[in-house]
Specification:
With 592 residues, this protein is α+β, with helices and mostly antiparallel strands. Helices cover 35% and strands 24% of the residues.
């Protein structure tokens, strides 16, 4: 191996070593945390049979009450809603069509059969209204079953009567009519209120995606604002090395919080006010998730709230607000149906990302297009899995770009045929570099070729790559989607963990790199390219292995199929006879 190859391989080995070190460190932390919390879990399970008072005040918008909890459960076609008397809100939402955990094949038999549950372990229920004691009292609401939902009501000692009517609907929607009535017979100061949107939590203790994809967000009428879980994480560093001072609370907005959300990778809790003015602020605090996630290194979530300002209610005045809740999957077509409540910005609720996270909008745009295309193909061929849909979509995209790829390859072949002419010009004008450049450009123009033609296929397909990269990390359709040995296209296709070093063996990224190496050796180098650059291109697959080894298997599948199709196209072009070229100065005919 030459020096360049050794350098590239060494850098990749070092980076892989750093990644392995951090995964091992994380594994040790999880094991230690689970060992320390075993007794606490056992104690919590032993006392779970009797009603218990709420936990002491914890980080987040906490609800302190010693009144025994009462719950009321209502189920519709999509979800099971558990309402709680503590705060008069929705304690949890269990999604009937989504499992909590997609167990990888190498862990089969160890996973639970629980449903995906939103707001689990949160310090306050969804749409609890928290603030000063005059707004909460003892926090104990009466719960009454109504025709299509639940009514929660609370009369406080100061004369304030809080009533919430929860009306369950389709598409994971709940419409909540809230009234705050002054029954004191005199003016009543109403303190500022935190209307709880929900708490972003992992799906389970092994949800490794939560630190990357969990958090809260809000919309100000023109743009979305994200608050990631790491915003409150004391161990977060800048550039991997420099410690960052963690925050204790986030406050954003200036009477322009149109809607707010708390989310993890594939599920979201949205609160969308319909009446009166938007909320004054959107607030987020770190929240202790209690015993639900004992053993997880991230037992803190993001609790989000819409904040409304203090005001005074005159005698018998009734303040009414209506809030539409969406507590369900980040499924684009479902979110698009409720577009009016989202200000027609379903893609923001999908959280494809903003700025660098979405490659400055390019990834978000193409992610939406590819998601439409993928779902459209699945609607046409519903009996095949999404894995085969990705294969089919990739082949169709390659076919669509074939004219551009073929034209680029023909141009490169013509440039190779012109290489002797360029060499002759270089020798002729070796002392006149500017003249050589001028003549070389004339030669290329005459033969209608461009040195940039070799980059054309990559430039054209780069937005598609970014779109796939963005879409696959958010598309719930791929969660639990099987393909051959792959159990979940949104996670690495780990076949087994290598004993001793606890390192996952992921086959699909290795196949991806294999076909990329083959393609790199088949593709002709661009004439005039520096030899060291050519060698670097040949070793680029190692960088893809580094960054995609532990990424979603769906991305590795796309790259493998796309590269394989590229190899076929390269072989087809190689069978075309070399093109005729026109020298800059045609050879003169010999005089007779």
């Amino acid at each position: 191996m030459d020096r360049t190859g050794i350098t590239v391989v060494t850098i990749c080995a070092i980076l892989l070593g750093v990644w392995f070190f951090y995964t091992q460190k994380y594994g040790a932390q999880v094991a230690q945390q689970r060992a320390l919390n075993t007794n606490a879990v056992a104690q919590a399970q032993a006392t779970a049979t009797a009603p218990t008072p709420a936990a002491p005040a914890a980080p987040g918008f906490s609800l302190e009450t010693n009144v025994p909890e009462r719950v009321l459960t209502v189920t519709n076609a999509n979800a099971r809603y558990t309402f709680t008397s503590r705060g008069g809100g929705i304690k949890t939402v269990e999604l009937l069509h989504y499992p909590e955990t997609i167990t990888p094949r190498w862990k089969r038999g160890t996973g639970a059969n629980a449903l995906a549950t939103l707001n689990a372990g949160a310090p306050a229920p969804i749409l609890a209204i928290l603030g000063a004691p005059g707004l909460i009292g003892d926090g104990d609401f009466s719960l009454t079953k109504i025709k299509d939902g639940v009514e929660a009501e609370k009369s406080l000692p100061n004369g304030l009567v809080v009533t919430k009517d929860f009306h369950l609907s389709s598409n994971y929607l709940v419409t909540v009519n809230v009234t705050l009535k002054n029954d004191s017979g005199k003016p009543l100061p109403l303190p500022a209120q935190n209307w709880i949107v929900g708490t972003a939590t992992p799906m389970d203790v092994d949800d490794s995606s939560f630190p990357s994809y969990g958090g809260a967000m809000w919309y100000d009428g023109s743009d979305s604002h994200l608050v990631s879980v790491s915003y409150f994480n004391p161990s977060t560093t800048v550039l991997l090395f420099f410690p960052r001072t963690p925050k204790t609370e986030y406050n954003g907005g200036n009477d322009n919080a149109i809607w707010g959300a708390a989310y993890n990778q594939f599920f979201v809790m949205l609160a969308m006010p319909r009446t009166n003015q938007p909320a004054e602020e959107f607030a987020v605090r770190p929240a202790d998730l209690g015993t639900k996630y004992q053993g997880s290194p991230w037992s803190m979530g993001n609790e989000a709230a819409l904040v409304y300002p203090a005001q005074t209610l005159v005698a018998d005045q009734v303040l009414e607000r209506q809030v539409v809740l969406y507590d369900g999957p980040k499924e684009f077509r479902t979110l698009d149906v409720i577009g009016n409540d989202l200000q027609n910005h379903a893609e923001l609720a999908m959280n494809f990302g903003t700025g660098f996270a979405s490659f400055w909008g390019i990834g978000s745009f193409f992610a939406k297009v590819l998601l439409f295309a993928m779902n459209g193909l699945h609607d046409l061929i519903p009996k095949i899995s999404y894995g085969w849909i990705i294969v089919l979509l990739t082949i169709l995209l390659r076919a669509f770009f074939w004219p551009f790829t073929a034209a680029s390859m023909r141009s490169m072949k013509k440039m190779q045929a012109l290489a002797p002419e360029v060499k002759a010009l270089k020798e002729k004008y070796k002392d006149e570099p500017q003249k050589f450049t001028q003549k070389q450009m004339e030669l290329w123009r005459k033969n209608k070729v461009s040195p940039m033609s070799g980059c054309l296929p990559m430039l054209i397909q780069m937005p598609v790559f970014l779109g796939f990269f963005t879409m696959i990390r958010s598309a719930i359709e791929l969660r639990g989607a099987h393909f051959l040995w792959v159990a979940d296209l949104t996670k690495p296709d780990t076949l087994f963990v290598i004993p001793g070093i606890n390192f996952p063996f992921n086959l699909l990224p290795l196949l991806m790199v294999g076909v990329m190496v083959v393609q790199a050796h088949l593709q002709p180098p661009s004439p005039g390219m520096d030899p060291s650059q050519q060698k670097m291109i040949r070793y680029m697959p190692l960088f893809f292995l580094l960054f995609l080894y532990n990424y979603s298997a769906g991305m590795a599948l796309y790259m493998t199929v796309s590269t394989t199709a590229g190899i076929v196209q390269t072989r087809l072009i190689k069978n075309i006879p070399p093109p005729a070229v026109s020298p800059l100065t045609p050879p003169q005919k010999k005089k007779k």
